[in-house]
Amino acid sequence: MKYKVFVDGQEGTTGLKIFEYLAKLSDIEVLRIDSDKRKNPEERSKFLNGADIVFLCLPDSAAKESIELVKNDKTRIINTSTAFRTDKNWAYGLPELKNQREVIQTASRVSVPGCHATGFILTIRPLIEAGILPEDYPVTCYSLTGYSGAGKSGIEEYENSVLAAERKLHVPRHYALQHNHKHIPEMLMYSGLLYEPLFTPIKANYAQGLAMSVPLISRILPKNASAKDVHEALSAYFESERFVHVMPYDSEAYLDEGQFMISECNHTNRLEIFVFGQEGKVNIISRYDNLGKGASGAAVQNMNIMLGLDEGNSLVN
Ligand SMILES: NC(=O)C1=CN([C@@H]2O[C@H](COP(=O)(O)OP(=O)(O)OC[C@H]3O[C@@H](n4cnc5c(N)ncnc54)[C@H](OP(=O)(O)O)[C@@H]3O)[C@@H](O)[C@H]2O)C=CC1
Ligand SMILES: CC(=O)N[C@@H](CCC(=O)OP(=O)(O)O)C(=O)O
Fold this sequence. Notes:
Blueprint: E1 3-8, H1 13-22, E2 28-31, H2 41-50, E3 53-56, H3 60-69, E4 76-79, E5 91-92, H4 100-106, E6 109-111, H5 115-129, E7 140-146, H6 151-159, H7 161-166, E8 173-174, H8 184-191, E9 198-204, E10 210-217, H9 227-237, E11 244-246, E12 271-278, E13 281-288, H10 292-306
Parallel strand pairs: 1-2, 1-3, 3-4, 4-6, 5-6, 7-9, 11-12
Antiparallel strand pairs: 7-10, 8-9, 10-13, 12-13
Helix pairs in contact: 1-10, 5-8
This protein binds NADPH dihydro-nicotinamide-adenine-dinucleotide phosphate and ligand 2.
């Protein structure tokens, strides 16, 4: 028997990428809604209720509408938007967190983590659990991302040369400077921190690839923990993970003339964590594809877990 899968938002950035992954799977029958009816609630309702698994790849408001349209107990939902990530009735789809795989396996509602939140939580939570980072540490972090994270309209701004020139988009931009980025609530809830991190995202003129950087200062860590201690704790936590890899300590060999390469995980579901450090200063950088482990890849990984399939199905090249 094949599982029936419907992608609500099939023509958007995340939806299209999920389709690419699903096309490689033989256990899946993809249900396709007519393009001109894709926003018609009545038509969507038939697909939503006829599927075993639904991916919601929609703006928050439309995702909430889809949930209202599901009238049975059978359809299991994977939502890529921010709408339900801190809702206790939804499982948080980050299987690399301790015991989270088991939660996802049996859940009927799973939220795919936000792209910035993914690298942040995977950096902070293991360090708190290892007793290296106190839960009240005043964490700051910044993330450099490609513009595809902004969806169709955001991509259009950058790829339409007239619009891009008008808005001077050739240079990087800080945003959410009022400390109001939509990922902060989930970053707080799942990192184990007591207080919100001070988070600054930066969007730049390239399509794909994200690097989340978290600096730490040893002298305010318990036992003056060093970069090497941080590296050891993260390596132990992710030791047996397939998609999260802690790279060799102080990985000069992975730099290009001393400079970090953001896009090396593009078109994969891989997330790589680097720890750099010197004289009591620790810099942890995770890099991944915002459309891979930051969105569509993570969504498909969750589906594989929910259906009891091999977790890497269609995700490993
Ligand atoms: N891009 C990324 O890197 C990431 C995105 N996300 C989240 O995933 C969700 C989807 O994002 P993304 O794919 O980038 O967004 P896009 O804007 O690229 O795509 C959204 C799709 O939803 C469709 N849509 C809008 N309203 C409705 C509706 N009422 N009924 C049915 N379809 C509708 C749009 O239609 P139309 O084709 O007419 O525009 C579009 O095809 C968002 O909530 C986003 O925040 C999450 C992680 C990363
Ligand atoms: C470049 C860009 O604009 N990125 C988006 C995040 C993309 C993402 O992860 O959005 P969801 O929370 O909806 O999943 C942003 O920072 O708002």
